[in-house]
Amino acid sequence: MTKPVFRFAPSPNGRLHLGHAYSALLNDELARRFGGRLLLRIEDIDIARCRPEFETAIYEDLAWLGLRWEEPVRRQSEHFEDYRAAFLTLRRRGAVYPCFCSRKEVASAVACREVKPGRPWPRDPDGAPLYPGTCRDLPSGEIERRIAAGEPHSWRLDMGALRALLPGPYGYRRFDREGREEAVAADPWRWGDAVVVRKDVPTSYHLSVVVDDALQGVTHVVRGQDLEAATDLHVLLQAILGLPTPLYHHHGLLRDPEGDKLAKSRRSQSLAELRAEGLTPQAIRQRLGFAGQPTPST
Ligand code: GLU
């Protein structure tokens, strides 16, 4: 029997906060409980926002918490060729089309449509308007000309084509802390024609995460509930790319006193700041509901 494989996959675009600590400690606890391995993956495709000092801080903060992980650490920025290969598969399968729209153009196309029928335009689970399909059926000559002219473009999933090609139904298995599993239905279509290759980066979070989880043999994904809806899209990508679907556990999010989830963008107090205030790793573990001392690895 092969060992279960878990991973913690932070992005080095800010300092880690207690929410990250919770996710990392839960991965560690479940990996130990299920006799598995723990990997660390640095999700740094966003070259403009990720910084080497934040990556160094991730290693420091996690080691300070008492975590250990396998080396070498996979850094996404070193593997763009893997995401490119997956993109070419999507393209070969007719699953994507290029989109030349700017954010502003998408917003104004949606605004026009919203005004006309007098009802709100549908949103994806992240709250963004579904793509209205402006570039979906461009003539191939025009596509080639615009790409050859160097016009910036992203690549979107063609959900209409995919519904016909791979109608589903979709789902995955979720597991709890005791290892009980149950089936969950997934609805990838609610994402609309989601971007899978961005204009500024030759991949996207969704594409790289499914490629990496498969390449690293991840069997158990433990991450926050804020990514639960994204799993619906991930199972569709796995189906198109012929990749296995891991088991998933989406844990509750830590919130600040105002009820907002902790986030780097909201400048939630970082682990480094808590450390500077004199908090010990044991205190943090206890505060987050984990045993005070790291259990020795077996
Ligand atoms: N890199 C993502 C984040 O920092 C996590 C992705 C995942 O666990 O699938 O929120």
UniProtKB/TrEMBL annotation:
> Which terms are listed as keywords in the entry?
Aminoacyl-tRNA synthetase, ATP-binding, Ligase, Metal-binding, Nucleotide-binding, Protein biosynthesis, Zinc
Q: Which residues cross the membrane?
A: none
Record has ATP-binding as a keyword: yes
Residues of the Glutamyl/glutaminyl-tRNA synthetase class Ib catalytic domain? 6-292
The cellular component terms of Gene Ontology attached to this UniProt record, alphabetical and capped at eight, are: cytosol
Q: What is its EC number?
A: 6.1.1.-
Q: Which domain of life is it from?
A: Bacteria
Task: Kindly indicate where the leader peptide sits in this chain.
Answer: none
Would you identify the family this protein belongs to, as annotated? Belongs to the class-I aminoacyl-tRNA synthetase family.
What PANTHER family has UniProt attached to this entry?
A: GLUTAMATE--TRNA LIGASE, GLUTAMYL-Q TRNA(ASP) SYNTHETASE
What this protein is called in its record is Glutamyl-Q tRNA(Asp) synthetase
The organism is Microvirga flocculans
Lineage at the top is:
Bacteria, Pseudomonadati, Pseudomonadota, Alphaproteobacteria, Hyphomicrobiales
